[in-house]
Structure formats: structure tokens, C-alpha cells
Amino acid sequence: xxxxxxxxxxxxxxxxxxxxxxxxxxxxxxxxxxxxxxxxxxxxxxxxxxxxxxxxxxxxxxxxxxxxxxxxxxxxxxxxxxxxxxxxxxxxxxxxxxxxxxxxxxxxxxxxxxxxxxxxxxxxxxxxxxxxxxxxxxxxxxxxxxxxxxxxxxxxxxxxxxxxxxxxxxxxxxxxxxxxxxxxxxxxxxxxxxxxxxxxxxxxxxxxxxxxxxxxxxxxxxxxxxxxxxxxxxxxxxxxxxxxxxxxxxxxxxxxxxxxxxxxxxxxxxxxxxxxxxxxxxxxxxxxxxxxxxxxxxxxxxxxxxxxxxxxxxxxxxxxxx
Length: 322
Fold this sequence. Notes:
Blueprint: H1 2-22, E1 32-36, H2 43-59, E2 63-67, H3 74-81, E3 89-94, H4 100-103, E4 114-130, H5 138-147, E5 153-156, H6 162-174, E6 179-182, H7 186-194, E7 200-204, H8 205-213, E8 217-222, E9 248-256, H9 261-275, H10 278-286, E10 290-291, H11 296-317
Parallel strand pairs: 1-2, 1-3, 5-6, 5-7
Antiparallel strand pairs: 3-9, 4-7, 4-8, 4-9, 4-10
């Protein structure tokens, strides 16, 4: 009798597993929505619309981009995480997602209340200086900051932004003091850098590249461990005397908590396959980034690790949660 019961249990378990694996075989059978937490026309929006087009061709259903901005991206994230966990609502997040838990009193757990799907792209910030500053290398920047502590002004896209914290992390490693000038967005910060109103800005590479190429600003270093194809002669901060320094701007797709694993794996495979295409690589590299990809588990590990890193920086510089 025990053998019969054991056999029945094993058969039932096998049936459940088989049924589960085919439960969402028809997915997707209706349009998919990608919520973008940034304004239309920006780098994140352009990337999302490109991926939506490519995903739609593979999945056979429309993939629609919806811009939901505000509160440092939290409005869009909250809307995405509140959706049904059926794979039909995804949210494109950036590396700022890992900063927000230290800055805001969130209505959700950034690790437990979401399902990681895949990281789409990753690239450096570009440390750029004004022509008036005369600073063109990391050693020159450090020498100027040590000679007159606080005299060098650095811009950011906002208090507590990942760009702000990347610069503060550099200040800590270099043991220097500079004066922070926060702006309401990266575009305004870049305009004032070009106009010589500030000395330094850790810019999104895509926005800074055109102005570096025309000589309006100087590229000093990139913030990732490896140099970038778009500027092969510009060194990394790590190789400029600060091994281990890394600050990455990335974008990735997440869904609400409880998404079925087979749907997650299908979406992950589709995006990874798209990122392997030469056309996708060329498009992303043109903006100074690289296709990312990888597993959903790897994406979760990155989010958890960076949340801890930026949390420490926030505490060290004394920014209070809002």
C-alpha cells in the first residue's frame, strides 16, 4: 500500500510539473506593456521602444511603451509592480532603482516585491570637464581639488541621483572635497558645463559624447572597469589610480512579484537573443553602452549588491531619506 501511495504521489507531482510547464504555452496572446519611468525621447525611452519593436516581432504580439514619470521614477515603478503578475506588464528600470531605497520611504520592497526579468544594457558614466577648468586627466582633477578644497564644482542630475553618488564615491576614494551643484535633470547640468558654469559632471555617456567629439567639453575618464569602444583612448577611473572603482548606468526589465517562471524565462530568452544581434549591439554601442543580458538571477544579484553599495554612500555623505 505504501508503494502504491508513493507511486500516486510521484505521478501527481509529475502531472503538476508538466501542467505547470505548459500552463502558459500560449503566452503572449495579447499586447504587452512596458512602463518607462523616464520622459519620452530620452535615452531610456529610445531603448525601450527599440526593444519593444524587436520583442513584438519575436513574440507575435504588440509591445506598447507607456511613459509614467515623476518622483525619481517611483510613480512608474509603483504602477508596474501593482499590475497583475501575468507577464503583460513590465517596467524598464535604471540603476537609480538601487539608489531609491536609501533616499525614499518606499511603498514596496525593492527586492521582494518584484520579479527580475533581464538586464538590457549597461555602460559607464563619462567624467567630463569644462574647457575653462583646464582639467583633462584624473591626476589633474585630484591635484586641483587638493590644492583648493571645495573650489571645484561638480554638477549632477539631482540630489541623491546615481550620478551624484558616483561622484561622491570618487571623492571618497580620492580623499578630496568638491562642491556639489544639483540640477533638475541631466540636460541642464550638461548645458551649464558647456557654458563653463561648473567644472565637472559625471554624465550619461550618450548625452556627453557629441559634445566631447566637437571639443566643447573634455572626456577625463569612464566609470566602468573597461574602456568603451566609442572613446578607446579615454581611461577608466579604476586604471587612473583607483582599482575597484565602478559605477554603471544600466537599464533592465522587471515585473510584479509572482510572475510565472516559465514566462520570465521566455522573456529572458527573447531579450538575450535580441541583444546578440549585430544591429542591437551597434545601436547600443553607439550610445556608449553595451548589451547586457544574462539570467534573471544574475540581474537580481546585481540589484541587491548595488543597493548595498549606494546605501553606504548615502549614509556616508549624510543624505536623509525623504
